Amino acid sequence: NFGQMAGMIRWCARHMLSSGIALGIALFSCRHLIAGENSELAAVLGVVAFMLPLQGLNLHRQAVLQALQHPVLCLMPDQVIRLLVLIGGVLTYFFVFGKPLPENVAWIWLGSLAITLVAGAWWQQRLTPPEVKAATPEVLSGAWWETARPLCMLQVAGILIAKADPAMLGFLGEPGQAGIFAVANRIAFLLTFGLSAVNAIAAPLIAQ
Predict the structure, then answer these.
(1) Most exposed: 2, 28, 76, 174, by fewest CB within 10 Å?
(2) Is residue 46 packed enough to be buried (19+ CB in 10 Å), middle (13-18) or exposed (0-12)?
């Protein structure tokens, strides 16, 4: 049903954008409360607040491309384009202005996220079937919410489990220790690369 497909794409995009904006406003309003006397952290959190709506749309674009059975292109903007833009931006800043501050890196990260979103949106627009583009969107909010709520709760629980340890370490110990632990945790996460690759390919096929 191309109408329901078009409706789901728009419905999800609208809700992910509104959720990202709400979370961004909440984080921006509470950044000084979270950072305490650390003005540098407060500045970084302020930039992160602007990232949240873009990240929501970026995840939506990734899911749409995966559903359209383009597992490589759904990951390409995040895994390749954003990394190259981020490295290029940091190096350019370093050679032009000197050593970047955390806030500067955060702004560069925000720029890389915006470029990633534009590239991914172009691919999504190009690869979306013409039948979906021409169809009249059909929205089944009730049925979709019944599916989305438990999945959202599971996703939130997974994020809390994955992020709770560095957050607790930073709260109880030194921020530097939490940073080192987070880097080590990211390196260990590379062990799941094979599982992520298989899931990106198999998920749309199983759903079909």
Answers:
(1) 174
(2) middle
Q: How far is the C-alpha of 186 from the C-alpha of 163, rounded, in Å?
A: 11
87 CB contacts (<8 Å, ≥6 apart)?
none
DSSP 122-147: HHHHHHS-HHHHHSPP---HHHHHHH
* 2 or 118: which leads in pLDDT: 118
State the burial class of residue 120 (Cβ atoms within 10 Å of its Cβ: 0-12, 13-18, 19+): buried
For 15-59, what is each residue's pLDDT tens digit? 889 988 998 999 899 888 888 788 888 888 899 899 999 988 888
- The residue whose two tokens read 């992160």 is 48
